[in-house]
TrEMBL record:
<feature type="domain" description="DUF7577">
    <location>
        <begin position="14"/>
        <end position="38"/>
    </location>
</feature>
<protein>
    <recommendedName>
        <fullName>DUF7577 domain-containing protein</fullName>
    </recommendedName>
</protein>
<dbReference type="Pfam" id="PF24463">
    <property type="entry name" value="DUF7577"/>
</dbReference>
<dbReference type="InterPro" id="IPR055999">
    <property type="entry name" value="DUF7577"/>
</dbReference>
Amino acid sequence: MNSLPDELEELPTERSCPNCKTENDFSFTYCHHCLERLDTPSTQSLR
């Protein structure tokens, strides 16, 4: 059942900063604009 558009299968390559809403590359740990810590899903499992 592959009826989804290709766009939905692509993972986002950017994430918004929780502080200033600036789009940052997914590999960034801190926002390049305000240096706010970015939440990463992998952070929890790395503890």
